[in-house]
Amino acid sequence: MYLRLKGDTIEVSANYLVSKEKIILFVNSKAKWIYDHYQKNALKPKNIDMTMNKIRLFGQEYELYISIQKKIGWKLENNKLYIFSKTNENEQIEKIIHKALKELLKVQIQPMIAKWNMVFERDPTIVIKKLKSKWGICYVNNNKVVLSSNLAHYPLVAIDAVILHEYAHFRCADHSAKFYEIVYNYMQDYDAYKKLLN
Fold this sequence. Notes:
Largest sheet: 5 strands, mixed
CATH superfamily of the largest domain: Metalloproteases ("zincins"), catalytic domain
Shape: globular
CATH architecture of the largest domain: 2-Layer Sandwich
Distance between the termini: 25 Å
Radius of gyration: 20 Å
Structural class: alpha+beta
Number of strands: 10
Number of helices: 6
């Protein structure tokens, strides 16, 4: 059985033969772990807080303004992110915010991509999209790196660490000692930077 926390929801994956009683016992046995993780997540600052009109961009807090207008779009100005939406529906607003994150991230990573292209002598296709549980994916055979648009919430050093991680897969496909030797060779503080993503 596997247990995951998603927001305020506890998800359990189990074989269909496992009884409901066993699942309840399993969840109860993890009560302390659930409580500790819930507390940790509750204290962690939110990347997007619609109730407080705040958004975190590249590790800094920005004010978030939602404006209902005839046009759709966004603008970043004076530590404020303006979202222009035709409706106040969360789904529409989230789409616009996601587009802003993608475009902002694309600009910020350009120097990093240029640097790692030179170091690794590669020029992969870079794709930015919503990833549910990963910061990045390297498709070695397709010469492609996919990055999570959520990286736009975190400091640039953390983003650079993720990009290096994906580029290192061009030399070593797995996460063996050899892989981490490559990573640490180019970024001694890699572990500290990755911790910023928590």
